[in-house]
Amino acid sequence: MIDEDGKNLGTMETAEALRLAQERGLDLIEIAPTANPPVCRIMDFGKFKYDREKGEREHGKKQKEVEVKGIRVGFTTGKHDLELRARQAQKFLSAGDKVRIDMRLHGREKAHGNLAFQKLNEFLEMIGEYNLEMPPKRFPQGFIAIISKNNNEKGSIKKN
């Protein structure tokens, strides 16, 4: 049991703690229900709720949200267009975002999966240094790979 000033009042019965809180015109709040015995505090519930929400808002500000940007390339996309998309991917990576690369195959292109896979690997080489979050996987519509910024970690791909 902790009072409104932060002083430890020791272990006491629930009824006695509730009576003490009512005498002071405050609420009895269970702070740590899993502790043995549970820890309770005498304080204003509105203030407790406000402080907790304020802490969550502050915590949310410190988190950087990583977005997954998408780049779609085709099997017949020309070299210049691939270079343009590679520069775009580098820009996304430098901003700290992850990049999802889709290679869409249409119709008869699906029969040439090996060539499409080679083209996707050539495109990845154009990008430069990156971490392979998800290696190229075959899907019914083509191939998908996810890359992120290279932080010189184990498992990173360094392509120049």
Fourth-level CATH superfamily of the largest domain? Translation initiation factor 3 (IF-3), C-terminal domain
Secondary-structure element order, N to C = HEEHEHEHEEE
Which CATH class of the largest domain is shown? Answer: Alpha Beta
| pLDDT < 50 runs, ≥5 residues | none
CATH topology of the largest domain: Translation Initiation Factor IF3
Task: Report on this structure.
Helix 3 (79-94) packs across helix 4. This protein has two domains: 14-62, Translation initiation factor 3 (IF-3), N-terminal domain (Ubiquitin-like (UB roll), Roll); 68-158, Translation Initiation Factor IF3, CATH 3.30.110. The model has no long low-confidence stretch (mean pLDDT 84). With 160 residues, the protein is of the alpha+beta class. The chain has helices spanning 14-23, 45-62, 79-94, 113-127; strands at 27-32, 39-43, 68-74, 98-104, 129-139, 142-148, 156-158.
